[in-house]
Amino acid sequence: MMNKIQALAYLVQEAQSGELVFSASVATSLKVQEAIDVADCSIEHATKIILNEPLLAAKVVAVANSVAYVGIAGEITNVRAAISRLGFNTLRALVASLVMKQIAGASRNITIRAKVNQLWEHSAQVAALAQVIARRITKVDPDTAMFAGIVHEVGGFYLLSRAEEFPCLIEPDDLSGSSDNEQYDELSEANPRVEAMEVIIGRAVLANLKLPSEVNSAVEALWYGLRAMPPETLGDTLLLANELSRTVSPLDTRTDSETNRCESEIDFVVGEGSLQSILEESEEEVQTLSAALII
Q1: Residues 244, 263 contacting (CB under 8 angstroms)
Q2: Distances (CA, A) of 139 to 70, 129, 216, 255
Q3: I need a surface site. Which of 194, 228, 238, 266 has the fewest CB within 10 A?
């Protein structure tokens, strides 16, 4: 039976040879993404496309009615109005959220399903926080920040999709004797940790999704970057949102003491306020947007 390092090494070889395994539903959603990416795609055409994906249609309307977008315009009840309110950048992010869930698949294993649900809850919280941080603090494009938050765990979703085949992927890391593992050393000379191989896999999945380079760079910053204080870039925005998420990724290898940092520990001044005051003011917004994304 393979251990975790051996399983990751096998998946890395698949990734490097372009043999990633996706379900048919992922391919369908990627076609939706491709269709709405066309420069002259009209709202009417996008509406017809989205209505063919009931779960996506429900998500689009739910997000459009969240506190982050509803404003003073009131509730809407149809996809066309939702797209008009959200715009195409947010629509692309929501299509990406469907792809993330489809990549993970619907496992029959209770443990895997629980981890998928936890990972999606974490991703939705990061996306909602990134949107608020971008709009209120870093002033980068909020829709792009939400998009980056949605896809930042794409490698994790892929690993969970293969966990029935390789149960060791959801077991705690055991690096005992890893220095003697030639395959492990070869793949991660610069960073001899399991995470190095997970990054290789995540990068390959990102490449398949053909995401904007700005989003790819932000996710790379999350993997390897150091967050500036106060945050300035899209990568900083994503790093801070990930750190503030109350639901931790089930694949996070850090200890509880490393992940359980409250807002006050990383507070900083923003104009006449602070990070903590902004988060308190935006709490309902973050909660409703993340809840809408989870659908």
Answers
A1: yes
A2: 20, 13, 19, 32
A3: 228
Q: Are the CB atoms for 118 and 247 separated by under 8 Å?
A: yes
Give the span between the Cα atoms of 172 and 146, in whole angstroms.
Answer: 30
Cα 242 from Cα 123, distance rounded (Å)? 8
Q: Describe the crossing of helices 88-104 and 43-51 by its angle, rounded to 10 degrees.
A: 20
d(CA 134, CA 145): 6
Distances (CA, A) of 118 to 124, 246, 248: 10, 11, 8
∠ CA 249-138-252, nearest 5°, is: 10
Cβ neighbours of residue 98 closer than 8 Å, sequence gap 6 or more:
29, 32, 53, 55, 56, 59
Domain 4-294 sits in which CATH superfamily?
Answer: Hypothetical protein af1432 (1.10.3210.10)
Question: Is the CB of residue 239 less than 8 Å from the CB of residue 227?
Answer: yes
Spell out the per-residue pLDDT of the chain, length 295, in tens: 678 888 999 999 998 888 888 888 888 888 898 899 888 899 999 999 999 888 889 999 999 998 888 875 788 899 999 999 999 989 999 998 888 888 888 788 899 999 999 999 999 999 999 999 999 999 999 999 999 999 999 999 999 999 999 999 887 655 444 444 554 444 444 444 566 888 899 999 998 888 889 999 999 999 887 778 889 999 999 999 999 999 999 987 655 545 555 555 677 887 767 889 998 999 999 999 999 888 7
3-state secondary structure string across 172-233: CCCCCCHHHCHHHHHHCCCCCCHHHHHHHHHHHHHHHHCCCHHHHHHHHHHHHCCCCCCCCC
| Domain range summary for the chain, segments of one domain joined by + | 4-294
The pTM is what?
0.84
**How far is Cα 256 from Cα 204, in angstroms, rounded to an integer?**
29
